[in-house]
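Changelog note: in this version the structure field was regenerated for every chain. One regenerated record is shown below for reference.
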Amino acid sequence: MIQELINRYKRIRTEHFLRQTYQYSYAFVGMGQHSLTNLYPVLHYLGVPLKYICVTSERKAQLIEQKFPSVKATTSLDEILQDEAIKGVFVSASPSAHFSIGSQILTSGKSLFIEKPPCQTLEELETLIDLQRLHGSPVAMVGLQKRYAPAIQFLKERLRKAHLISYDLHYMTGSYPEGDALLDLYIHPLDLVCHLFGQPEILTCRKVTKDSFILMLQHPQIVGTLELSTAYTWTAAKESIKVCTHSGAYHLSQIEELTFTPSSSTIFGIPMEKLHTHHETKEILCQRNNFTPILANNQIYSQGYFNEIEAFVHAVESRNHTTTKDIKTIRGTYQLINEIQT
């Protein structure tokens, strides 16, 4: 009886996955290491009908068609934009080319998923927002995957009813000579605090090295400090945020482990831990399990790549389109970046 129930559950789960098919065709612009590692595997798993891959090199186009015979490789973005069967286009190319490519796609009226940064300035972002509105592109979404990480979604829900006090964020990597650290790297933590706490005012901004900043931000209900630095190491790069509330402290490490440590009790304002031995308790709210090799424990899933791609495709297919996915939602992030730059 138990085995029959187990088999039935597995069968229902498999059939549910197989029934999730897509009616439209899609294209992808770019084939760099990030795309191959984090984005293409999700498209393959979901079974997204990818018709075109667009690259700048004829040689690479030939290699793509040898590797992926079911996909048409092209060096012409116009060929994709003129194909009425294509409803959505993924873009993960050189950051400096994103604005031009994104502008052409939105002008064509097709839906756009564009990796960060979608553009270089706040003015360019406003242009993209206007193009979406003017040409009726159904979906325009930026690949800031941390918004879609399960631990971030869990934390945001827990903070919704919490009495917030302060937060402390550290984003520490090695040197970054190949691009703009503020736009290419720090856009992630800056967007994260805007997403969690709302639009901030800069109280303090100190540039401590060429690409390192110490910030203090005032959000509507919370004050936070941020260390954004490339003065450390890529081998042991770290990202963490600690959020203090009246009921206790949340600590998120590497976007994969979320814990909660409750505040100690008091009597007439006197901490009970000063009166007797106190054993700190820590509740694990969300944690990637490295032992069981299932989807939820894959780093592509825990970091948010899976959910963001699925959210975009479902929005294009008119299954689950919400304003949280819209390109307009990162306006506050670019306003903050613009203030830091100036």
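Spot check on this record: The CA atoms of residues 295 and 301 lie 7 Å apart. The longest strand covers residues 164-172.
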